[in-house]
Design brief:
Blueprint: H1 19-29, E1 35-38, H2 55-63, E2 69-71, H3 84-102, E3 108-113, H4 120-129, E4 134-140, E5 157-160, H5 163-166, H6 169-180, E6 184-186, H7 190-199
Parallel strand pairs: 1-2, 1-3, 3-4, 4-5, 5-6
Helix pairs in contact: 2-7
Length: 200
Amino acid sequence: MLFVGLPHSNREALRVSDLACADRLRQSAGVPTGTVVLLPPAALPSDSPAVPYDRRAVAAELMAYGIKVYIVPDAPPTDPDLDLKTATAHWIAHNAMTLTAAQPERPVLLVAQGSAGSLLRALGFSQKASRRPVSGYIVVDGDIPKAGGGDWPDAPVTYIATAAGQAIPAIADNAHQAELRGWTVEKTDAATVIRTLLTD
């Protein structure tokens, strides 16, 4: 069944109007099994100014093409005075535990935006430890993990600079750095890129 993960207080499955039609579309498009995981924002200092990003809108567009999507609920509020290391650990633990409880269909495609992009390496390691395969990583208008360590990335990485993001020097620089690291860089909206990756 196609679903979007919702906050624990009111989680429910969201159905497309015609599941049978969506399943046929998914099969005919050659969409691989697995789930697109839309990660929550991270309350961390960021080099990239905030860019509007609606995870529900992205999920709705992907689901219209029969793609399975899980929206990880926002992490509970934390003390704004937390140091960076503690705040990072809190975000990683929240996502790791939520995915373990939700058990989205594997493999997972992890999508992060803003400062959360810098945490994809750590979250990827947590998924490996949980034996949950990751099919890829996507950063939308955000920070990228620091270079270093030969064991990551363990799956393809795509950097998306949206129209709004491209006008921001820090995001344009992150896109350039991603390109230098051999990652795919796309300059369009997130839903279009993800859909193309999964259906082409």
